[in-house]
Amino acid sequence: MLNIFRIGILLGWIALCSFTFKSDTEVSIDVIVLDAGHGGKDVGTRGRISKEKDVVLDITMRLAQKIKLAMPEVKIILTRGSDKFVELNERSNIANRRKADLFISIHCNSLPKNKKSPSGTETFVMGLHKSEENLDVAKRENASILLEQNYEERYKGFNPNSPLAYIMLANRQNAYIASSLNFAGKIERQFQKYADRNSRGVKQAGFMVLWQTAMPSVLVEAGFLSHAQEEKYLNSDEGQDEIAESIFRAFKQYKQEVEDR
């Protein structure tokens, strides 16, 4: 899907891979990590015509290009720029090693075929789920760890199917919850304002990919692949560009707000 578009961006990607560490006294957004969910053997959810790993990679690459062109001073780090498998804890480790100022993980949503599928966007931050539906989303995204070797040891016995495990998980990332909620709200407002999407709001749940990130972090569910019309939109050039542009506009607002304090 959109291989020519990906290749065009990747040809210039070396320029984005020089990393510097910021001073603790600086108040700015200099380094951002963009995480295209799933990849490789982990396909994520499936629609009738597409796989989550492909859709979110295209959206992520579009977002990276927009930031690169508008804000060349911002260091952009991709957890993956191709169809490869990246372990969940490595995604947060990448952000921590590079001392990133912001972490954005991009995904697509789904509901079982025996349920009437809704449509719309959701943006999650790390926290305790307040509904069974939020827990189900976290369970589905966290199931990726089952594809990793020695996942029991790596994640200290975390069981993605245990509700109790999520209560324990929710106590992490509290230091960044206010900033994460602020940014998440901006994303959802742009989805409504710019892309005219149905926003299902900002939510909290226990996502392993956000668990150990030492910076404000969000997980974006760009739409439902289980909804036929929305899946078609998410696979279109127009749809992917609108989703990427909405997140970019939210990032621009957030960056300006942080740096103007």
Summarize this structure briefly.
This protein has helices at 3-11, 52-70, 88-97, 132-142, 151-154, 163-169, 177-193, 208-211, 228-234, 237-259, and strands at 31-36, 75-78, 102-109, 121-126, 199-205, 217-224.
Which terms summarize this structure?
261 residues, alpha/beta, Aminopeptidase, 6-stranded mixed sheet
Describe it for me?
The chain contains ten helices and six strands, in the order αβαβαββααααβαβαα. With 261 residues, it is an alpha/beta fold. It has a single domain (30-259), classed as 3-Layer(aba) Sandwich (Aminopeptidase). The model is unreliable at 9-26 (pLDDT under 50). The termini are far apart. The chain has helices at residues 3-11, 52-70, 88-97, 132-142, 151-154, 163-169, 177-193, 208-211, 228-234, 237-259, and strands at residues 31-36, 75-78, 102-109, 121-126, 199-205, 217-224. A six-stranded mixed β-sheet has the order 2-1-3-6-4-5, with helices on both faces.
